[in-house]
Design a protein that fits this description.
- There is one protein chain.
- This protein folds into two domains: about 130 residues, Rossmann fold, CATH 3.40.50; about 110 residues, Rossmann fold (3-Layer(aba) Sandwich), CATH 3.40.50.1860.
- Helix content is about 40%, strand content about 20%.
- The radius of gyration is 17 Å and the shape is globular.
Length: about 260
């Protein structure tokens, strides 16, 4: 990939920055889209997720992007197959779950997955992991309030800590030796999760994704442009737990057009 080729990266909010942050050192020109207007994705219907994601991919295509990274587990689970058929001839789409699951399958014979309601209902992690080894036990658990805790900075609230521990205990009691943080927001709860389990227990798919796609990038300078569908300043503030955004954050709600 040439450094002047545009790559789109998107998520429902700031969670996808976990992937962007890892990619930046490899160089390239990135467009990051946070669909903050429709946050969170985890409790939306499949049709809604497809429509949200379709608009974002259209936006990237109109900006001249050649590739797009679905830095969102829910979109990967519910929208990838449909939108790859629609747009695969125009833009290369990298879905998070389908890209990393074969490698996660090699980590353990009992795997837990913490994810959004939409991702868990789709059972995409289970399906993709079992394609590699049908004998692996996979337990998927919906953690619907994790995104709210991250996006609103509620890390230190007792209610939040109790909620996180309650969900972690469910998977640990199932005998899970590895636990996938199946939403790009969730790695930012590691300081809390590691109070009760070793950090090596947790798998951050963002790191797998970066290692798998980084060969498509050349070393060199990086440029990032940030876009959101609502509340640019709130996005910038929330993003500070992941990375400092010095660039402007542009509101593009009314600029998505048809292709």
């Amino acid at each position: 990939m040439k450094n002047d080729e545009l790559t789109g990266v998107f998520d429902s909010g700031v969670g996808g920055l976990s992937i962007l942050k890892e990619l930046i050192p490899y160089g390239g020109h990135y467009l990051y889209f946070g669909d903050t207007k429709n946050l969170p994705y985890g409790n939306k219907t499949k049709d809604e997720i497809i429509n949200f994601t379709r608009d974002i991919i259209k936006f990237f295509i109109n900006q001249g992007a050649k590739k797009v990274i679905m830095a969102c587990n829910t979109s990967s689970a519910l929208a990838y197959e449909t939108l790859n058929l629609e747009f695969g001839h125009k833009i290369k789409i990298y879905p998070l779950i389908q890209t990393v699951a074969p490698y996660i399958a090699k980590e353990s014979d009992v795997i837990g997955v913490m994810a959004t309601e939409g991702t868990v209902k789709s059972q995409t992690y289970t399906k993709e992991i079992k394609k590699v080894n049908s004998d692996i036990k996979v337990y998927e658990l919906a953690c619907p309030d994790f995104v709210k805790i991250v996006e609103n900075g509620l890390y230190n609230e007792k209610e939040s800590i109790d909620y996180i521990k309650e969900h972690l205990d469910i998977l640990l009691n199932k005998g899970c030796k590895k636990i996938v943080l199946g939403c790009t927001h969730y790695p930012y709860l590691l300081p809390i999760l590691t109070k009760w389990a070793d950090e090596k227990t947790f798998i951050n798919p963002a790191l797998y994704m970066t290692n798998l796609v980084k060969n498509n990038f050349y070393n060199g300078s990086s440029k990032v442009e940030f876009f959101v569908s609502s509340s640019p300043e709130k996005f910038r503030k929330n993003a500070s737990i992941f990375m400092e955004i010095k660039e402007g954050v542009e509101l593009v709600e009314n600029k998505i057009c048809k292709v």
